[in-house]
Design a protein that fits this description.
The protein has helices spanning 4-13, 27-33, 51-60, 64-69, 78-90, 104-112, 124-138, 149-155, 157-165, 180-188, 208-214, 237-245, 255-268, 279-286, 308-321, 338-348, 381-393; strands spanning 23-25, 37-41, 71-74, 94-98, 116-119, 141-142, 171-175, 196-202, 249-253, 297-301, 325-333, 352-359, 369-377, 397-401. It is α/β, with parallel strands linked by helices. The strands form three sheets. It has a six-stranded mixed sheet with strand order 1-2-10-7-8-9. A four-stranded parallel sheet has the order 5-4-3-6, with helices on both faces. It has a four-stranded antiparallel sheet with strand order 12-13-11-14. Helix 5 (78-90) packs parallel to helix 6, helix 8 crosses helix 10 and helix 13 packs across helix 14.
């Protein structure tokens, strides 16, 4: 079983290779939880995520014969970049299989670090099948993204840094995909049993709750989440054994939780993270009482490699989920000046109109009626409620719809 001694050994091998990333106090989350909440900023790590820790640890321990055969890996992006960078630093040839829908910036960065990239399959699990087959056929060393003791030990070095940066820490919250990061942090803290570790999965790709209940790794029942960094269909055997042995608590978060968390981190902490990197923050925001035991909380922001197009969609989704966007459908007479009157009313109410569309062909519309869809930007949930109330009081027939 991996423990703090193995993690410390990995940490010694990472001196001068990885950055000791800062911790940042979040006043917004501190107020929400009622105890100090610190953000461990692995989004500022080399290659943009914690993955370089495990990748370099694994590659640096290869024999000369193994190094000569080259390495192969599979990843949606962060492990890919970690392996590519570590291979370049150690002078190794690297091939990385990535899903065909992997974020373009992650693909480009992996290639820029010197790795050869092949796009295959729709998921990390499918890409991993190709990487495994290539390793078996050629003798290249498979650098698994999470299911290896060296990778887990390397990822766990985050936990030892946290102990030095926040010595009084009571809870560490980490994103959970295949389990390498969570298991590494659990192992790193095995000599501090008073510190609990809570792992967080996206509800749309949550293999761990059912696996822990069954007592062995089981595939996720579904794979649908914006958090591609933790969208792993089957837990790794090595991290699963660590998490199961320590009785690690696992929580799940919705897509709405993730988008709200990403928005809060961007607005309040001024940090750019990817959806998977915000999973721990999402858990705190979804149920702050679960973390409110009075002791300091450290949330690991695991990565910041986000596609700008994905970021745009997620922020938009987060704004809608937090009541900052409001979609209105107004049924009104189809006559000159009606639309102008509606827009004037919205201006008085202090909202910013973002989009307007007409529908005169609905089957339930009279000949002299029109439906107008209006998307507006508001100042929050209270403002949304006031807008709806005032419009209905003014005689507008409307139904609220979620913004898209």
């Amino acid at each position: 079983m991996i423990g703090s001694a193995q993690v410390e050994a990995a940490r010694a091998g990472l001196v001068g290779v990885v950055d000791v990333t800062p911790v940042q106090l979040s006043r917004a989350l501190t107020q929400l939880v009622g105890a100090p909440v610190w953000l461990k900023c692995e989004n500022l790590q080399r290659a943009g995520s914690f993955k370089i820790r495990g990748a370099y640890t694994r590659l640096s321990r290869l024999t000369e014969q193994e190094r000569a055969r080259g390495v192969v890996a599979a990843s949606a992006g962060n492990h890919a970049q970690g392996v590519a960078l570590a291979a370049r630093m150690l002078g190794l040839q690297a091939l990385v299989y990535m899903p065909v829908d992997a974020a373009l910036p992650k693909i480009a960065a992996t290639r820029d670090y010197g790795a050869r990239v092949e796009l295959v399959g729709r998921t990390v699990d499918e890409a991993l099948e190709h990487a495994t087959a290539y390793a078996e056929a050629t003798g290249a060393v498979l650098v698994h993204p999470f299911d290896h003791v060296d990778v887990v030990a390397g990822q766990g070095t985050i936990g030892r840094e946290i102990l030095e940066q926040v010595p009084e820490v009571g809870t560490v919250v980490v994103p959970l995909g295949g389990g390498g990061l969570a298991a590494g942090v659990v192992a790193a803290l095995d000599d501090r049993p008073e510190v609990r570790v809570i792992a967080v999965q996206a509800a749309g790709a949550a293999a761990y709750p059912r696996s822990l209940a069954a007592g062995h790794p089981m595939p996720a029942g579904a794979m649908h989440t914006m958090a591609d960094g933790i969208a792993v269909g089957l837990p790794g055997r090595v991290p699963f054994d660590v998490l199961a042995a320590h009785g690690t608590s696992v929580r799940t978060v919705s897509e709405e939780d993730l988008s709200r968390a990403l928005l809060l981190v961007a607005e309040r902490a001024k940090l750019l993270v990817e959806p998977s990197g915000a999973a721990g923050v999402a858990a705190l925001m979804a149920e702050p009482a679960a973390f409110a035991d009075g002791r300091p909380v450290v949330v690991v922001l695991s990565g910041g490699n986000v596609d700008p197009l994905v970021l745009q969609r997620v922020i938009r989704h987060g704004l809608a989920s937090s009541g900052r966007f409001l979609q209105l459908r107004v049924r009104m007479p189809d006559q000159p000046g009606a639309l102008a009157g509606l827009l004037s009313a919205l201006a008085v109410l202090g909202v910013n109109v973002m989009h307007v569309s007409h529908d005169r062909t609905g089957a339930d519309l009279s000949l002299d009626e029109v439906v107008i869809d209006v998307q507006v930007e508001t100042k929050g949930p209270d403002h949304c409620a006031a807008v709806l109330t005032d419009l209905r009081t003014a005689g507008y027939r409307l139904a609220e719809q979620p913004a898209q």
